[in-house]
Amino acid sequence: MLVTGASRGIGRAIALAFAAQGDRVAVHHRNSPDLAERLRAELPGDGHVVVRADVADPAQARRMTEEVATALGGIDVLVNNAGIFVHHPITEVTYEEWQAVWRETLDVNLIGPANVTWNAVRHMGRGGRIVNVSSRGAFRGEPDSPAYGASKAGMNAMGQSLAIALAPLGIAVATVAPGFVETDMVTEHLKGERGDAIRTQSPFGRVARPEEIAAAVLYLASPAAEWASGTIVDLNGASYLRS
Ligand code: NAD
């Protein structure tokens, strides 16, 4: 299995979960060779590999995917997890900054998964699984990070389209859409009063742990999950349900 953006956060938890069930894992990173190598060494079992690429770069995404297929003898599961979340309120940033963030966010969060997916599908047989890590921002709005919300809405649509396109090949495609998860990506958001407000959105009074997202990904990538193809799993601890 290949998980992108695996050196930390949700991707790291996903790599650990797959290795714990006996899978060989390709730990992908962009610029964190030490963290990725440390994780590879920590994973239970043998045969795990570390691969590097900027997923937004089509040539790098292709080379990386081929390396994984060669090392693992194919790609049975792809988890498109790598992503960025940039603060760019429309009333505060310059036009140039606005342009740059939109381009980078769509490149990394949407074109990146599209690049990796096109290549991975060519190394996948029947029973292959693709799981995309999207976000609640796709359907709830991200006022200070509109490019992020748009990129994740695009990812949801891509997943649904490919679920139809790849079903005849026996490949299932599903999406998880978590709200806030305790990782470095959102450390700043979870501080102080803002953090308290975010935590109390859930009646559990907390945000998600990376392992809870990994557990859902594990199911969606399992042989039993063909019938979950095309779904978008809203993992939000009963948040947003109060009237
Ligand atoms: P994170 O910042 O810890 O991890 C993101 C990973 O993506 C990093 O390892 C980073 O190196 C990698 N990455 C970024 N740009 C890349 C590129 N161009 N090429 C290759 N790799 C790149 O954050 P996380 O919280 O673990 O996020 C993982 C995924 O979960 C992301 O897609 C994110 O949007 C999504 N998500 C996170 C939250 C949250 O609250 N943390 C909520 C919903 C969805």
Give a structural overview.
This is NAD-dependent epimerase. GO terms for molecular function: oxidoreductase activity, acting on the CH-OH group of donors, NAD or NADP as acceptor. One of its GO terms (biological process) is fatty acid elongation. The protein is of the alpha/beta class and 243 residues long. It has one domain: Rossmann fold (3-Layer(aba) Sandwich), CATH 3.40.50.720. It contains eight helices and seven strands. The relative contact order is 0.14. The structure holds nicotinamide-adenine-dinucleotide. Nicotinamide-adenine-dinucleotide binds next to helix 1 and helix 4.
What ligands can be seen in this structure?
A: nicotinamide-adenine-dinucleotide
Gyration radius (Cα, Å) is 17 Å
- CATH class, named Alpha Beta
Q: Report the helical percentage.
A: 40-55%
**Shape type:** globular
List low-pLDDT spans: none
Number of strands: 7
Q: Which percent band covers the strand fraction?
A: 5-15%
Question: Mind telling me which CATH architecture this is?
Answer: 3-Layer(aba) Sandwich
